[in-house]
């Protein structure tokens, strides 16, 4: 028996050289080659975008690099889009815990994105300007793609086969029943524009304000039921690769996700972005600002994206769908398990901060050892912090004295978004 057990253990042993070789292969696969392109046509001058390929999880360490691609579609002026482009990334990074490894960093990223979006909205609203913006914010770290979005700009994944999937959920009242119900439950009204009390025309809008969207950054002149809390989705691609199409509604009002993907297949990223804009303009004309970013995630050994992955390769590399949280956007987006080469890691679209900020197991602490506000990152003394769970419907399952904690200002913002009280921002 002893000799048999010894033989079993011997079979479990892996030579050191093999382990090193395996690590080298895994490290290589974690760094796809990115090729990207951007194209735009302006009508109002309210679309903006962000492309950063030099970000680092650990400052000064190039091996910790990640990339950011984002589209901001402003309305009622460009101030909110410009402010968000200049500040959102810093606020997201500032909400990340320090001194953690890559896996923990990726796991903490969805919550940091929520905090970053809310903080950006708070800071912009303090300026008293009335413009607003959508935001579709994409972070690529290795083969992992994390997308946070408010509004109706969209990010689409094309695997260069027959499967195209939305990584975002459109926050348009016309199409999103859940968001209509949330707005009305929070104190807003939903209806179409009425001409002199007569016939109703146009899309469904929130009142006061008349905004067609239920989520955005900015929009100080509408009710705070228009929230900046993003839908977040995180997926991991296999080493077959894939293409992301990130665009404002100037594209999506003219083209479906499938049509945009098919229009630019077999083209390099820069030409693909131009082709998507061209197809949109040919279909609908230049009625709105039109911006498109195309990002190709290419295996390091390949110079070009494969037009169609071999069927045998698809079967061998198919990954089981694993969803770590409730996917409120699942009804509105195609299940990525059908893509056959994508693993779903996280999806959540709730507008409730108590649910989105979660437990405090990895909350950031200040240098003084005191806790900080989970949203705005200011230091809190014990008597100042208010649990995000206190007085909420989640307090039955989460102790109200446990973190994460909010400062008084952020707690008021949270309650205002949920229709519990008004904050300093007045709707007119």
TrEMBL record:
This is Uncharacterized protein. It comes from Melastoma candidum.
């Amino acid at each position: 028996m002893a000799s048999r057990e010894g033989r079993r253990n011997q079979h479990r042993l892996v030579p050191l050289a093999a382990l090193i070789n395996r690590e080298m292969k895994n490290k290589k696969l974690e760094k796809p080659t990115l090729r990207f392109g951007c194209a735009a046509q302006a009508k109002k001058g309210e679309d903006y975008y962000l492309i950063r390929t030099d970000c680092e999880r650990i400052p000064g360490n190039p091996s910790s690099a990640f990339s950011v691609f984002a589209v901001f579609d402003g309305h009622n002026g460009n101030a909110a889009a410009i402010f968000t482009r200049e500040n959102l990334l810093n606020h997201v990074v500032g909400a990340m815990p320090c001194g953690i490894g890559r896996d923990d960093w990726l796991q903490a990223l969805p919550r940091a994105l929520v905090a970053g979006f809310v903080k950006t909205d708070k800071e912009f609203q303090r300026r008293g300007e009335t413009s607003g913006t959508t935001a579709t914010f994409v972070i690529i770290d290795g083969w992992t793609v994390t997308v946070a979005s408010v509004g109706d700009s969209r990010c689409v994944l094309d695997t260069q086969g027959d499967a195209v999937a939305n990584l975002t959920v459109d926050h348009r009242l016309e199409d999103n029943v859940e968001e209509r119900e949330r707005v009305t439950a929070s104190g807003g009204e939903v209806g179409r524009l009425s001409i002199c009390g007569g016939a109703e025309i146009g899309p469904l809008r929130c009142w006061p304000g008349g905004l067609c969207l239920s989520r955005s950054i900015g929009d100080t002149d509408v009710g705070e039921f228009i929230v900046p809390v993003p839908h977040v989705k995180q997926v991991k691609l296999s080493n077959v690769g894939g293409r992301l199409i990130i665009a404002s509604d100037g594209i999506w009002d003219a083209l479906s996700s499938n049509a945009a993907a098919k229009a630019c297949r077999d083209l390099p990223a820069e030409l693909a972005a131009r082709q998507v804009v061209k197809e949109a303009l040919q279909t609908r004309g230049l009625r709105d600002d039109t911006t498109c970013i195309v990002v190709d995630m290419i295996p390091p050994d390949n110079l070009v994206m494969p037009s169609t992955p071999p069927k045998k390769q698809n079967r061998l590399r198919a990954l089981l769908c694993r969803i770590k949280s409730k996917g409120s956007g699942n009804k509105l987006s195609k299940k990525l398990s059908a893509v056959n080469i994508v693993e779903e890691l996280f999806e959540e679209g709730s507008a409730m901060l108590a649910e989105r900020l979660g437990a405090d197991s990895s909350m950031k602490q200040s240098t003084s050892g005191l806790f900080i506000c989970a949203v705005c990152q200011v230091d809190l003394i014990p008597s100042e912090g208010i649990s995000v769970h206190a007085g909420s419907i989640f307090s039955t399952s989460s102790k109200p004295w446990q973190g994460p904690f909010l400062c008084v200002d952020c707690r008021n913002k949270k309650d205002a978004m949920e229709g519990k009280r008004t904050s300093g921002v007045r709707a007119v």
